Structure formats: C-alpha cells, structure tokens
Amino acid sequence: MPSLNEVTNLDVDSRIAVLTLNSPPVNALSANVREGLHIGVKSAIENEEVEAIVIICEGRTFIAGADISEFGQEPKGPSLYEVQDMIESSPKPIVSAIHGTALGGGLEVALTCHYRIAVPSSKCGLPEVNLGLLPGAGGTQRLPRIVGAQKAMEMMTSGAHIPANQCLEMGLVDEIANEDSLLEDAVNFANQIINEKRPLVKVRDNDEKINKDRGNEELFSNFRKSIARKTRGFLAPEYNIQCVEAAVNKPFDEGIKVERELFTKLMTGSQSAAQRYAFFSERQANKVPDISKDESIKEIKKVGVIGAGTMGGGISMNFANVGIPVTIIEQNEERLERGISVMRRNYENTARKGRISENDVEKRMGLINGQTSLGSLNDCDLIIEAVFENMDLKKDIFKQLDSIAKEGAILASNTSALNVNEIAAETSRPEDVIGLHFFSPANVMRLLEIVRGEKTSKSVVASSLAIAKKINKIAAVVGVCPGFVGNRILAQRQREANKLILEGALPWEIDDALYDFGFPMGPFAMSDLAGLDIGWNKETSKGETLRDLLCEAGRLGQKSRKGFYLYDENRNKSPDPEVEQIIRDFAETRQIRLRDVTKEEILERCLYPMINEGFKILEEGMAIRASDIDVVWVYGYGWPIYEGGPMFYGSLIGFDKILEGLKQMEEKFGPDFTPSPYLERVVEEKINIFV
Ligand code: 3HC
Ligand code: NAI
User: Any idea what the Cα angle at residue 19 is, between residues 16 and 24, rounded to 5°?
Assistant: First the structure.
C-alpha cells in the first residue's frame, strides 16, 4: 500500500481511493494523522482516476478524537479545521467507514464527510464534556443539524457513546455494514453513490432539523433544569448547551465562532486541565512499575463472597453483572435470604428504571448461589471476604479458607482499614492474599483500592487489576497502612470537621462549605446517612462527646428523622436549632468560647491536612504516584473531578501556599498540621510530583 507518512496509506483501486489511518492505540488526531489525512484527501482529489474516497482505520477503532496528549503544546502541521475544510469541500464524495468508536474530533471528521457507513458494533459520540470541553471542530454546529437540538444536547452533555443502530435511526450514519467486511461494504457504498450520482451532502447546509427550534428558549431552559443536579459545579455542560443554542439561532459560520470562543475558554481553564489529568491518571493507575505487562493473569471463572451484608451483596452483583457465577456465604439461612433479597430488589429497581430487562434480572440472580458453609468455596478462583470489621473474625475465616480454597485461588479481604499482612499471615499462602477494598454501594461506586500486602505475588496484583477492568471498576494499587489511602485521608477531614464544630462552625456551615466546593455531601450529612449510632453503645454512653449527646437525645441520623439535621418525610434535611443548642451547652460545660469561622477557614482546615496526608502517603510509598491518590479520592469519595483530586488541587493552590498554611495552622492548633517533610522538600527543591 503506498504510504503517505508513518500513519496513513492511500490505495487507489479503479475509481475508489481508500485512505487508511493506522496510528495505535486509538487513531487519535495527532499531527501525523492530520497531515496524512490532509495529503491523502488532497492527492485523491487531484487524481483523475479517483471518483470517490473512503476514509477507514486499522486497529481497534476509528478515530477516537483529538490527541489529548498534544493539548497545550505548540500546534504542528495542518490544523483539524484545514483537514475538515478539504474533506467537506471535496468535489468527490467522501465516505467515512466506522468501526470501534468515532468519538470527539473523530466523529467531527466523519461529519464533514459526505456519507458515513458503520459496522453494527461501532459507536459514535461527542464525549468532550468528560474532559471539561466541548466539541471544538464544528461538532456543536453539525450534530444538531442531523439529530436536532434536544438529542444533540443530550449527547453532548452526557458524552454518551451511541450504538450504530441508533445512529442509523438518527441519521448520524447512512448505512450499516457487515461486521466483518467494512472495507468491502464501504467501497461498494462509494460505488453506489457514484452510480446513483448522489449529492455531496454537506451537513453544515442542512438547517431543516433546527429551524423548528429557533427562538424556543423553553427548550433550553427545560434542558438546563433537567441536568442541573448532575452537572452542578461543571462549566462544560453549560457551554455545550450555549453552542447548541447558537447552532439553532445563528447561521453556521456565526455558530462556529461561538464554538471556538467557548472551546478556548474551556481549554485554557482549570476544570478541563483537571479532567484531562483525571483521564490519564485513571489509566496510569493500572500500571505498577515492578509488574510487567506479561505478568501471568489468573483466569477468574468463579467467585466466592463471604458475608451477604451491605458490601458482600454489592460486590457479588459486580460479578453477576458480567456473567461470572458467585457463591455467597452467610452465617445462617435467615441472613442469607435477607442478603439475597436485597440484591434482587436492587436489580428489580434497576429494571424498573429501564436500565436492564426483567430477563437480565433473572439471568443475574441465577448466577448467585447462596450457601451457609465456607466449604462450598472450594472451586472458586477468587474469594472475597466481606464479614464484620473484626480482626479475630477475619483471621479465623482466612485460616479456614487456607484449607478449603483450591491451589492458586486469590484470597481477598474487603477490610476498610485492617492490616492485610496480619490477615495473610494466618494462611500458608500469603502470596495469594490481597485486599480488594470496594466502596459502598459496591455495585455502583467505581473505585477499587487494591491493597498489596508485603508478600502478595505480582501475579495476584496483576490479576486483581484485570478483574477490576472486567467488572468496570477503576483501580488503584495501595500499600498496607491503617485506612490505606482513601480512609486514611478521610480521617484527616473528619477530625478537622469535628474539631471545627467545637470552635464555633455549625455542622451545616461545614457541610455547605464542602458541598459548595463540589463534594456530593458534607461529613455531617454523611454521618446522618450512615447512622450516628454505629459503634455507639446506649448502656455505656456518658455524654462525653457530641455524638453521645445526639444519640442520647434519640438523634440517630436519617433513620430516626433527626441527627445533625432534621429530616422531613422525603428525607429533605434542614438545620435544627436544637442541635445548635446542644452544641452551645456542650461548649459551655467545657468552657469553650465559640467564635465565627469563615467558609475559607473551613475549607483550609479540612482540605490542607488531606493534602499533607497525601504527601506522607507518598513518602511512605503507600501510593505509587500522586495521581493514584487523586484517582482514589475522585472515584471513591466524590472529590469533584473538575478539581482533579487533593494532590492536583494542592498544585493549583500552590504547594508553597499549602505549606505556609499548614505551618500557620500548626502554630495555632498544634501537631495535626505539622507539614510532611516530603512536602517541605517538594517546595524547597521545586520537585514536580506528577512525573
Ligand atoms: N488522545 C490520546 N490518547 C488517547 C486518546 C486520545 N483521544 N484516547 C485514548 N488514548 C490512549 C489512552 O490514554 C490509553 O493509553 P495507554 O495505553 O498509554 O494508557 C490508550 O489510548 C488506550 O485507551 P483506553 O485504555 O481508554 O482503551 P479502551 O479501549 O478502554 O477505550 C476509548 C478506548 C473508548 C477510545 C477511550 O480511550 C476513550 O474514551 N478515549 C477518549 C475519547 C475522547 O474523549 N475523545 C475526545 C477527545 S477531545 C476532542 O476530540 C476535541 C475535539 O472536539 C476538537
Ligand atoms: P455488614 O454488617 O453489612 O455485613 C457483614 C455480613 O457478614 C453480615 O451479614 C454477617 O452476617 C456476615 N458474617 C459475619 N460473620 C460471618 C461468617 N463467619 N460467615 C459468613 N458471614 C458472616 O457489614 P459491611 O458494611 O458489609 O462490611 C463488611 C466489610 O466490608 C467490613 O470489613 C467493612 O469494614 C468493609 N467495608 C464496609 C464499607 C461500608 O461502607 N459498609 C465500605 C468498604 C468496606
């Protein structure tokens, strides 16, 4: 095949030119790819023999978008706009042939082609919003012209990947090819276009779908309302909507101007920088420096879960969702039945929302086999213990598993904070023992902390990473220390939040500050949700802490309709003067003078020690890299992704400022704020912790 450059080939066979891109892993629109497209289309247009052009990709996918790793660098070679102009204004029809995913800039290139053909398994989408961006290569103006304003806003603000059959229905693709003969079918389609003298369709000229929405402000205000809760704090969804508004209300070229202006604003802002960082961090977290890509991976055909409580049930569902059978063990039939009925109810709720079918419910439940004897786990490839957080109980279970589990099985604990090395030491095979720390609700939360014990084998770590991918989790490998990475950092925030109450900040002021920062919920609303009486004992309670006092007053949290807050019948919370009084009385008996605490102080007091703890974790080698800490906090604890995570956020503030702030707080409030020596070194030696 005649090569145009390293990543593109042009082949002319009778009257069809086939331009093939081959730029692994995802044919992103790097300078090389843009150059290849530019030269290829130009020379096909100039070639008199050629009557139509097919653009197709090698490898796993059609163009998956702009090359994100080039963002922020000096632009090289032809711009994407130049490439698109050349394609759209070609006097010869151009067909894009899609497999895998046509995403972002990839779909935007396809939308400048005159026709699109796709295999049934392929998907199209404009996922820029997930990178804090909007489609910046005409997508915001062309998509509404094909699918209408409403659908375009849905696609652009969700970033959804739309299956080929739906794309066909919406007019986003013109033809569906056979799964295994895309090239042949695309060439036949191109021949058909020539034979039938079909027009050179330019999406930009087609206003039919958007005319009806011109001046319809309600359409946009309703849409804004419908996504407000989900997109709180994010800039990109709003800017995407404004582009569609421009598409509907302005001529194409004016709309493009709006798109470019808003794209530049997002691209140069901190939200997109954080979201792009999160994209690469998530993928980087899968790489463990001392474990090679060829490490042997254990095949997981059957999973065992011990404990059918809050976590065990959710964990089991993850495996059933991907077709892996699960044996779940409980202490007795009654608890087993209760656990299994919770799983069924969860699936049925999902089916009611239309996300899975009734048939899926039965299929998934059919994969879950409840038992009451650990002996039933003897044929499992992976066993995950999720019993009460009690070291003696866990040790006993692992001792038993040692004699039950088959050779080579992975033995995992879902402990939130206990020492995995100690648990592993109960077995004769500590190399097979690992922590797999899921987050509640385990069937929903994306994070999996993989806790690598001192003796855990490389193969068990690599296999755990592979399992995480299989069940659609985002994994980060962490070391054994109390609370691992996530809960260890959480403890810092919790401690400060509790202290702040006894200095004068009210629970809702602290919650509001953190909610406004972008967390889904503040620590006190969270405590109310979990129940204030976890670990509290009525018999021994002596009113020594605020929590004691609240529980003694029957304020157990949401379940008793009052805790730190008051709850109405729909669980809507409101501040309660009674709580304020309890706090004031408590402070008075302890001779504490309450003062005004500003929102800024609340944030610094809660967030700076978290960042400081991150540095301690890095110094101790409990996380592989700073970005892994951010992955844990974004996907496990709801740190707003547009703030990148504690370490990224710290870098935005400036580590020198964080250090200074910690020193000042140390002086006022003591050693809880003593800066990590590693943070001091990073500031002093200007070390970049993100490389
Ligand atoms: N640019 C640069 N690198 C990319 C990339 C992109 N657009 N998309 C994926 N990659 C890299 C990943 O970083 C990863 O690298 P690694 O192996 O070194 O870690 C590798 O490609 C494979 O990616 P995944 O592990 O994610 O592979 P999957 O097969 O699971 O998923 C995918 C493939 C669905 C294409 C997924 O990678 C993805 O969603 N990519 C991002 C798509 C996207 O957001 N496109 C829009 C870009 S912005 C844009 O186009 C702006 C335009 O409007 C102007
Ligand atoms: P839970 O109390 O809801 O469930 C524990 C279950 O284990 C109970 O149903 C109990 O009957 C069962 N069990 C106890 N001993 C057993 C035995 N010998 N054999 C079989 N089953 C037995 O507890 P939860 O919340 O599910 O926690 C389980 C583990 O997960 C704990 O280690 C906890 O720290 C950890 N975890 C909990 C999270 C949460 O948010 N609840 C989050 C992440 C981890």
Answer: 155
CA distance 655 to 62: 41
**Pocket residue to mutate for ligand 1, from 23, 26, 34, 469, most atoms within 8 A of Cβ:** 26
- Residue 588 among the catalytic residues: no
For residue 389, how far is its CA from the centre of ligand 2 (angstroms)?
7
Domain boundaries, the chain: 3-267, 303-481, 504-589
**Per-residue pLDDT, 1:** 53
For ligand 2, is residue 390 a contact (CB within 6 Å)? no
385 Cα to the center of ligand 2, angstroms: 8
Helical H runs in 66-132?
80-88, 105-112
**Of the residues 35, 88, 108, 643, which is catalytic?**
108
pLDDT tens for each residue of 577-626: 999 999 999 999 999 999 999 999 999 999 999 999 999 999 999 999 99
Task: Provide the pLDDT for residue 436.
Answer: 98
Q: Which long-range contacts (CB under 8 A, 24 or more apart) does 552-556 make?
A: 553/578, 553/582, 555/579, 556/531, 556/532
- Reported as a single tens digit per residue, the pLDDT across 108-131 is 999 999 999 999 999 999 999 999
Q: Which of 35, 88, 128, 613 is catalytic?
A: 128
Instruction: Report pLDDT digits (tens) over 98-111.
Output: 999 999 999 999 99
Q: Which of 41, 136, 18, 130 is nearest to 80 (CA)?
A: 136
Q: In the prediction, which pLDDT does 4 show?
A: 84
Shortest-distance atom of ligand 2 to CA 372: 20
Residue 128 annotated to the active site? yes
Query: What CATH topology corresponds to 3-267?
Result: 2-enoyl-CoA Hydratase; Chain A, domain 1 (3.90.226)
Q: In angstroms, what is the span from residue 624 Cα to ligand 2's centroid? A: 28
Residue 534: predicted pLDDT: 86
Choose which CATH entry (2.40.128.630, 1.10.287.130, 3.30.1490.190, 1.10.1040.10) describes domain 504-589: 1.10.1040.10
Query: Which residue has a Cα nearest atom 41 of ligand 1?
Result: 64
Peptide bond into 25 cis (omega under 30): yes
Read off the pLDDT of residues 318-334 as tens digits, 9 standing for 90 and up: 999 999 999 999 999 99
Q: Bridge-partner residues for 53, per DSSP? A: 17, 94
Ligand 1 centre distance from Cα of residue 26 (Å): 6
pLDDT value, residue 2:
72
- Among positive and negative, which fits the CA dihedral 223, 227, 229, 232? negative
Instruction: Sort strands 52-57 and 115-118 into parallel, antiparallel or unpaired.
Output: unpaired
Residue whose entry in the numeric block shows the structure tokens 């690599």:
462
Residues near 585 by Cβ (< 8 Å), separated by ≥ 6? Answer: none
Q: Do the Cβ atoms of 493 and 609 come closer than 8 Å?
A: yes
Ligand 2, atom 29: nearest CA belongs to which residue? Answer: 386
**Pocket of ligand 1, candidates 23, 29, 60, 68: which has the most ligand atoms within 8 Å of its Cβ, to mutate?**
68
Using an 8 Å Cβ cutoff, are 278 and 447 in contact? no
Cβ contact 118:177 at 8 Å: yes
What are 475's strand-pairing partners?
A: 448
Protein residue with its CA nearest to atom 47 in ligand 1:
65
Q: How far is the CA of 124 from the centre of ligand 1 (A)?
A: 14
Closest listed ligand to the CA of 262: 1
Using CB atoms within 10 A of its CB, is residue 394 exposed (0-12), middle (13-18) or buried (19+)? buried
Q: Would 303-481 and 504-589 be classified into the same CATH topology? A: no
Give the length of the chain. Answer: 691
Q: In this model, does residue 482 exceed pLDDT 60?
A: yes
Res 691: pLDDT: 84
CATH superfamily to which 303-481 belongs = NAD(P)-binding Rossmann-like Domain (3.40.50.720)
Cβ–Cβ under 8 Å, residues 272 and 131? yes
